[in-house]
Amino acid sequence: MEEKRERTEAETEQERNNLRDLIFRLCSVPGNSGDELSASKAAAAELAALGETEIDSVGNVYMHFGKKDAKEHILLDAHIDQIGLIITGIDEDGFLSVDACGGMDKRLMPGSAVTVYGKEKLNGIVCCMPPHLMKGEEKLLPVNELHVDLGLPAEEVRRLVSPGDRALMWMKPKMLLNGRLSSGALDDRAGCASLIRCAQLLKEEKISCRVTVLLSCDEEVNGRGARTGGFRMNPTQAVVVDVGFAAQPGVPETMSQPLGAGPTIGFAPILDGEMSRRFVSLAEENGIPYKADVCGGRTYTNSEAVAVVGSGVRTALISIPLCYMHSAIETIDLEDVENTARLIAAYIKEVGGRG
């Protein structure tokens, strides 16, 4: 039996830097729900060196490795889309009206910088009322009553922007202290990065099961990508990776996991209890920190779409702790992404080793 070699400090640091750069690249590409193609192409380029890769008609990315004709087929899913805005109109003064495309937080919108993806990439600001002119009784406007100012004449705005174009909150991925990383789109590009990293870890392994990485579209609006991709792949079991609540002021301890304390392993009615328990055992056997995340109802992830494909698919859910969800400053710990990848790789090696 081959002895397991511990990673050196230099190797660990290089792996952390490579993972950081991967997440930066994934988060720097736009991919609002229903308009994911740029993000899908960027992710496919990362996966191409690891296995047979393709993008389907709806924007899902697939990468296949392992034994093609194996009876056991594991689907690994994370969603590629991010929340954003869709342009609904242009008024006579050139201000854009918008609506949410995904779960935009109306509390964060007024005064925020946005990038509008029209014929050109344009920088704008979400309009806000000066506090001097407010009476103090006004309520937050719903997203579909907000406007974006591009600072251009109305005729120029109409030339460059059309209803149906998309806009995203402006953000720039950045490293914080202590291995933390902040960016928009970490929900769920962090999950995508963990699956790419998992495939990297398994690249030299002899896997006797079939594995498909699915980076799916439209999770933030309707789960179309997971439904169609899961149906197309018809797996025997699936592991869905998404983000979960990290510990921060105001978030109950029972609903969160501290950053850097490892991924959470889901237990819920839609999830396969045997798979969840095996992930717990593998985490303990491999020294990977984790927490059980138990809910009695919906998980609000792609696990609910994948688990009911065809005649049903045994499904597990692994979540990466994330602070400030659905904002332009989402924050994760790189070690949690790495540990998610290593936990799933351990599971695939076990299933593939007995296939």
Fold and architecture overview:
The chain is built from eight helices and 17 strands. It has 355 residues and is of the alpha+beta class. Strands 1-2-12-3-13-16-14-15 form an eight-stranded mixed β-sheet, sandwiched between helices. A six-stranded antiparallel β-barrel has the order 4-5-8-7-6-9. A hairpin with a 5-residue loop joins strand 1 (52-55) and strand 2. Helix 1 packs antiparallel against helix 2 and helix 4 crosses helix 8 (334-353). The longest helix is centred in the last third of the chain and has 20 residues, at 334-353. 47% of the residues are buried. The mean pLDDT is 94.
Could you give a short account of the major beta sheet? 8 strands, mixed
Mean pLDDT: 94
Overall geometry comes to globular
What class, by secondary structure content? alpha+beta
Question: Beta-sheet strand percentage?
Answer: 25-35%
**Radius of gyration from the alpha-carbon trace, in angstroms:** 21 Å
Q: What is the number of strand segments?
A: 17
Number of helices: 8
Order of helices and strands: HHEEEEEEEEHEEEHEHEEHEHEEH
Write a concise synopsis of the structure shown.
The protein has 355 residues and is of the alpha+beta class.
What tags apply to this protein structure?
eight-stranded mixed beta sheet, 355 residues, 17 strands, 8 helices, alpha+beta
List the SSEs and their pairings.
Blueprint: H1 9-27, H2 37-47, E1 52-55, E2 61-66, E3 73-79, E4 84-90, E5 96-101, E6 113-117, E7 121-126, E8 147-149, H3 154-160, E9 166-169, E10 174-175, E11 180-183, H4 186-201, E12 210-216, H5 224-233, E13 237-245, E14 264-267, H6 273-285, E15 291-294, H7 303-306, E16 314-322, E17 330-333, H8 334-353
Parallel strand pairs: 3-12, 3-13, 13-16, 14-15
Antiparallel strand pairs: 1-2, 2-12, 4-5, 4-9, 5-8, 6-7, 6-9, 7-8, 10-11, 11-17, 14-16
Helix pairs in contact: 1-2, 1-4, 4-8, 6-8
